[in-house]
Amino acid sequence: MAENKQNSETRNTADNDKSTTGGAAASTKQAKEETSAPGRMTNPTDSSVGKNAANTANDTFDKVKESAGTVANQALGQAKDKAGSILSEQKTNLASGISSVADSIRQVGDNLGGGSGDSNQIAALAGKYGDTLAGQVEKFSSYIEDKEIKELVRDVEKFARQNPLLFVGGAFALGIFAARFLKSSSQSQTSRRR
Fold first, then answer.
1. pLDDT score, position 116
2. Whole-model pTM?
């Protein structure tokens, strides 16, 4: 009987432990559900604090985004202005260079035009064509100087569409001329240094 009483006490203790443990597990489970359930907060002010923090973060992000856009637009505007001034300066340099070529052609024509005899008739004819060519080159120089960069690009595109073979041939010839010019100018600079 003593043994039965001891077994009964052991069972009661185990049952009490189970009920206590079960009660603790149930309250732990209930606490987890309350905190993990979406939209269910234990404190109603936590919800408004979260919303205020989110609104503040969104406002700050919007302000940063707006100021970054303003800075980027200013930088782009400055870059466009700088590029436009550089292109304008180069356009002016090109026009003056072409004008000096026209002057050189005119001087050669004048030199050929002055003289006497039959050979001078050919020289006079060459001088006349040189003068005509110089006039055309000056006209082209004035055209470049008077036009805006956008207009020049538009005109070149139009010419390239209307005369593709002539455009490609002219670009090739211009490339060869530029290469010869650069090569001869670098050789003359090298000989001057010696």
1. 53
2. 0.47
